[in-house]
Write a structure and sequence with these properties.
The chain is α+β, with helices and mostly antiparallel strands. Helices cover 27% and strands 43% of the residues.
């Protein structure tokens, strides 16, 4: 009972600690809105695109925290069917004898053999035991004519290395 309570408490705490891209960006905006975009880009890296706005300001597209994670794949079960061919044969022999009127003896002898070939193991290269996943944070950053950040909006948040938000890991660590 105590174990279930502790697990439930840990699960609620973990879910409560999850940060969305919107929340991560809002936390970063508190720190960066009103400051120079040059300072932001010097700290986190240059934007990959910029657009001139009609009021003299700029709209930047920024992507950061990019990296590739390798997560292990589940190993296949021994009971999964293979991609191959083979043959299985079984044989049973039953003999019944009656040495006297009150006794019956039944004997069954069984034997089986099988031969299987997994074509994947012979002809295909070994498959990696991991999956590669790209993680990153992408933002839209608006500035006024003087280059001062006026707003930040999340465009894409892939999920993080250790959390649900890569933007939170990059911008608020």
């Amino acid at each position: 009972m105590k174990l279930k309570f502790l697990f439930g408490t840990a699960l609620v705490a973990a879910i409560a600690g999850c940060t969305t891209a919107e929340e991560a960006t809002q936390k970063a905006a508190v720190k960066w809105v009103g400051r120079s975009s040059d300072q932001f880009f010097a700290f986190y890296g240059a934007p990959y695109r910029s657009f001139e706005r009609g009021d003299g300001g700029k709209l930047y597209r920024w992507r950061g925290g990019e990296k590739t994670l390798r997560r292990p794949l589940n190993k296949p079960s021994l009971h999964q069917p293979n991609n191959g061919f083979g043959q299985t044969s079984s044989r049973s022999t039953t003999t019944v004898t009656q040495p006297d009127a009150n006794t019956t003896i039944t004997r069954t002898r069984s034997s089986s053999s099988s031969f299987n070939v997994n074509v994947d193991e012979i002809f295909n290269a070994p498959k990696p035991a991991y999956q590669e996943i790209r993680v990153y944070c992408e933002l839209s950053i608006s500035t006024d004519a003087g280059g001062v950040i006026t707003s930040m909006q999340p465009l894409s948040d892939s999920g993080g290395t250790f959390s649900l938000s890569r933007c939170d890991e990059v911008l608020n660590s």
